[in-house]
Write a structure and sequence with these properties.
The protein contains 8 helices and 6 strands, in the order βαβααβαβαβαααβ. By secondary structure, it is an alpha/beta fold. Strands 2-1-3-4-5-6 form a 6-stranded parallel β-sheet, with helices on both faces. The relative contact order is 0.15.
Length: 253
Amino acid sequence: MPELFDLTDRTAVVTGGTRGIGRAITRGFADLGADVVPVSRSHEAVEAAAADVRDRGGRTLVQPTDVTDGEAVDNLFRRTVDEFDGVDVLVNNAGVNPSAAMGLPESLDDDAIDTTVAVNLKGAFRCARAAAPHLDEGGAVVNVASVGGLVGLPRQHPYVASKHGLVGLTRSLALDWAPDVRVNALAPGYVSTELTADLEANDQVRASVLDRTPLDRIADPGEIAGPAAFLASDAAAYVTGEVLAVDGGWTAR
């Protein structure tokens, strides 16, 4: 059974792979034997995440990339293929939920909406499209959605719309790319990251989140890395088009 989770000799590209959930996935995949390319716009952040991969015995490369820039994304996959002779796993984790995109719908401006959708949905689509010619048979795409892709969340309309879109994209890609490439999504609940720091600092919001979560706590990023590894590995060889909620029971209510 353990060999089903082994990612040795596989190359994984992890967008948003330098902090939070993405950093945990980068480290977790490297621990399972993968060569990992962590992606971020920041050269310094990519260098630090790449050092994590090397420390765990994996190969990596440093290619800062903005997922909203089509040419940059194409260059990322071109260089990855040149270095590693292919791509086995793509994790679309890059995501934003800016404060300017939170509030009543009538208070939001177009820039806030556009930024959220450009990263969370269009960025994932752009990376999947660029990876498609290079994904080997048996490859896997793991899209990091959210419970906000399964249910509504008040005052987070662009984020919720983008994550619902990502769930839909997951299912449609799974149909088009079967049987060669599997496409699945994770739907994390609240996870302790920079993205949720302001929410956690608000005692009222934190209490509301815990009240809504049967496991009565906010997740650690490392608790998302395991399910991501499952979907990327041979342990999930007969799983495609699915959305795995990793939400402490949030959507069970």
